[in-house]
Amino acid sequence: MAQILVERENRRFNPDWTTQFFFHEVKGKPTCLICNSSVAINKVANVKRHYTQNHPDYDGRFTPGTARGQEQLDRLTRQANGQMAMMRGATSLQQRAATAAVQALYPEKPDIQQAVQSVPLSRNTCARRIKVIANHITEGVIYDLNMCESFSVAVDESTDVNDVAQLSVFVRYYLNSKFSEDLAAVIPLTERTTGKKIRWLSKGKALQRVWTVRQHIEQFLSEIGGDAAERFLEILRSEHSLRDMDFLTDILAHLNDLNLELQGEGRNVVELWLAVTSFKDKLHCFYEDINSDINHFPITTEFVNGRDDVVNLTPARAFLVDVFLEVEHCFAGLDSIIGIIELVA
């Protein structure tokens, strides 16, 4: 009776549900792009109920209609399309193999052939085929990375079908006269994570976080006691160690800013060259600044102003020289095409 009422109401999937509730249509049923669960009836109340009850944080993290929301929707859609294409490919391959085997064994019995063709693949068979394909792709990426001269790594936050945060590791490399980009690994993040925590994976943010909670760390080490704790306490209470940590926190924050400028899809070589050139100019400014007002190093400034005696910043100046030489070395390849860059810049 319920099915007859549904057919009479002529309920159909509304495309607006995709942008509003992260749903798409699979075999006539509204299916959640986030967790891959389906709703029995094409009804907005059912779709909305599933979205609000099972994914309440999505409105805050990926608000529909915003750029971040659209980016997440595009990512989930590509993921779903890829999974369906892989399943169709694995199913087709298995069915062709089974059909060929039955035709060879029972060439005069079309009823048996038809029966075998109509048998669906089990879930375990599909999962096994997907695992084989995934392993093959992984081995191919590892082989290419071993063959190429150099490669770069980028990380991004994503979620799986159960909305569990994971770290996606991408690699970009040059091999066989072409640039390639592949997904190297997906690492589940079992603890609760946010975009801010993902950015703490960089050294600058990590050290800044340690500096922010250094007093709590010192209190914790004092409470637990022990030889190891005492050694760490000596480091935290040492004037030289605090000076070095404050300066490293400042300079690594600047390096982290450069790192972010060099990331992002669609960045061209001119933009990267301008970012590197600008940072090298900043290093000259930093070197002069460390000899005078140290305005570009706020944490170091706080440390210096809190001391009555003169703070020796000679190690900081030497470190800035090393940073400049390292940047020159890492981006030496840009010098070979500087003529072309200046022409199009």
The outline comes out as extended
Query: Number of folding domains?
Result: 3
Query: Gap between N and C termini, in Å?
Result: 70 Å
Going across the major beta sheet, what is the strand order? 3-4-5
Structural class: mainly alpha
The number of distinct β-strands equals 5
- Summarize the helix and strand pattern as letters: HHEEHHHHHEEEHHHHHHHHH
Number of helical regions: 16
- What is the residue-averaged pLDDT? 76
Tell me the radius of gyration. Answer: 29 Å
Strand percentage: 5-15%
Low-confidence stretches: 1-9
- Could you estimate the helical fraction of the residues in percent? 55-70%
* Largest sheet composition: 3 strands, antiparallel
Question: Could you explain the architecture of this structure?
Answer:
By secondary structure, the chain is mainly alpha-helical. It has three domains: 2-56, no CATH class; 122-193, no CATH class; 202-344, no CATH class. Helices cover 62% and strands 11% of the residues. The protein has 16 helices and five strands. It has helices spanning 2-9, 16-21, 44-54, 58-61, 67-105, 110-117, 123-147, 195-199, 203-212, 214-224, 227-237, 239-261, 269-290, 298-305, 314-330, 338-344, and strands at residues 23-26, 29-32, 151-159, 165-175, 178-188. It has a three-stranded antiparallel sheet with strand order 3-4-5, with helices on one face. Strand 3 (151-159) and strand 4 form a beta hairpin. Helix 5 runs antiparallel to helix 6 (110-117), helix 12 (239-261) runs antiparallel to helix 14 (298-305) and helix 13 runs antiparallel to helix 15. It is extended and about 90 Å long. The N and C termini lie far apart (70 Å). The model is unreliable at 1-9 (pLDDT under 50).
